[in-house]
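Input for the complex:
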Amino acid sequence: MSIDEIAPPPRLLMGPGPISVDPRVLRAMAAPLVGQFDPFMTTTMNETMALYREVFATGNEQTFLVDGTARAGIEAALVSLVEPGDRVLVPVFGRFGHLLAEIAGRCGAEVHTIEVPWGRVFAPEQVAAAIEEVRPKVLACVQGDTSTTMCQPLAEIGALCREHDVLLYCDATASLGGNEFRADSWRLDIATAGLQKCLGGPSGSAPITLSPRAVEIVNGRRHVEAGIREASDEARGRVIGSNYLDLAMLMDYWGPRRLNHHTEATSMLYAARECARLLAAEGIDAAVERHALHGRAMLEGVQGLGLGVFGDLAHKMNNVVAVEIPEALGAAGGDAVRGRMLDDFGIEIGTSFGPLHGKVWRIGTMGFNARKDAVLTTLAALEQVLRSSGVAVPAGGGVEAALAVYR
Amino acid sequence: MSIDEIAPPPRLLMGPGPISVDPRVLRAMAAPLVGQFDPFMTTTMNETMALYREVFATGNEQTFLVDGTARAGIEAALVSLVEPGDRVLVPVFGRFGHLLAEIAGRCGAEVHTIEVPWGRVFAPEQVAAAIEEVRPKVLACVQGDTSTTMCQPLAEIGALCREHDVLLYCDATASLGGNEFRADSWRLDIATAGLQKCLGGPSGSAPITLSPRAVEIVNGRRHVEAGIREASDEARGRVIGSNYLDLAMLMDYWGPRRLNHHTEATSMLYAARECARLLAAEGIDAAVERHALHGRAMLEGVQGLGLGVFGDLAHKMNNVVAVEIPEALGAAGGDAVRGRMLDDFGIEIGTSFGPLHGKVWRIGTMGFNARKDAVLTTLAALEQVLRSSGVAVPAGGGVEAALAVYR
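Predicted:
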């Protein structure tokens, strides 16, 4: 078999993520390894914990990485919190709410969901009523669901959960770094993310933060592995249903005891550290502002091309917009436009799931690609492809509208 | 907080893994991303599947990557095969056998173990007797356990398992690529590995292969996620206890349907592909020979320094040796020597676990570091550190013995 070294075609990734990785993050991954308990390694782990405390806006000591994609972070949170039979309430406003429900179900939870139509978010009263009815142990909620582009406000939900002694887990995969996020002041108990959206990195590492209250619950189920257990390591509570995603073990590994668990994915650690380092250097608030600016430019740009936009714009995530596929394009036209964007211009825009499948494209402006040139290039290319596909679009309407935002 | 870009100190990693990554693999990780369903991405995934079929010596269609460290691969295999209450038999000959038992237990298995003293492997009759007594659904066995440096022969165990209709899972994390491995002719049902040992990559991706028999068992528990399920996707069997590590879903994602699951960790995919590509270009048998050669040179080298070696040398893994810490060094002397190797020479050698803790160093020769200069440099440095620590060592005894192997 003759296979050459990897040589990806140049792509401008303007879908809902993964997006083009910041070249500085790519370079960080090319740094050589050190041993698993090398002083440089443990220092790097500690620095990464400190950096993600800034990103999550938290003082939580237990802020670290799960070695897997964003989904591994979600499952680590839920499998470590939820015991079989526990009630979990999931407000579902898009595909990733269904995912939280699915994962909670696999953990043996009695799952209750409430739903709003795609394109909307929940009002606090709706969540309050469901909490009072279900009396869940855990409420699991997505912040930004790219399937609908909606961003769920969390401050009131956090207060409600605390008031009712409910643990609040938040999946911030698609929103963190590009939308306001306050783990502590919103009183979140666990939040998880991934690198491949607003953090500007590749998929494969899941930052996580746990409140002291969550730490207590998780450590109430702490079982140190037979091979490395000491006399003082008394087992307690019901064993967590996963070894790999057992947050009690991960805390022992990232903590001062450095109890051996998995072999840390060092190159992904370097990537995660660099993502957070760049964000901290820019300033988290400035990064959110940048996402808001370029997201607005993209929104007004597609509207300037005469295209409709899906969903409640008052609650749109900064970093993605759902653009209605013009009816003139016909049933297969949406995919044909995406194909030409990719083949002719090297630009990827996203398809969609479920009720929006075939109805909208999802266009992202996030991480390294939350930039003026990326926005304008995408709009210019989209104008060309739409026109030659038979859609009447105003010449320069997209780019001009975006430029007006920048001016 | 002021944190600089990552700048690891130069290290020659000669422990039991992780080891220094091949620079070509580091470069592959710095390649830019493409979208998750870009034609280049799916081609790259298919190439990676083909390359790992060579590495595992298998024709198994279902040969792909689990997005996590080696331990994620182990758990994916066990959680997908084992239903709560199933009997699992684990022959334990070191720490990682205990890990398999621990993970199987978390999956709800009724776990049975048999043990041999550390430093030995099992004879087929011992395994046969246990299979007849326990009648397990799954036999889970490590191939090479770095904690003892032993390499368990698997051909007879594979035949026994087939004869008794037992599913055979093998953890080849530490052995694959550096020791003979034949998934098909040994009749393994699932085998998993990691990149950070003989494959010469960083931790964070777990290659896996499933026999058609294993595929049938796993797909007997296939449940497509609510958000993307179609009418024909009937749920069947007992749901797998993890979403992230559900091999039925992962096969749908890597297969022609490309059903959305996690967002593939693209940079780690590039790394895994490059590890296997380099190995395939060298020839798997040649790579195993290389590990045998440099492993023998390291073994004879430490013996040439007058040091004892732990375990049954007839069954030693090619890629690691357990070197007895001279009694003259006293209780803390072993760690002091390791510290000076690291601080003065930038060379890491390994400590050990359990009954061997404080008794042996583990020195690896694997992946990119299965090289003459790495072996000789390590032996030269070890001689210097031992002498200045008060151990009588013959001048040049290590390097000369190793050179004799190379001549």
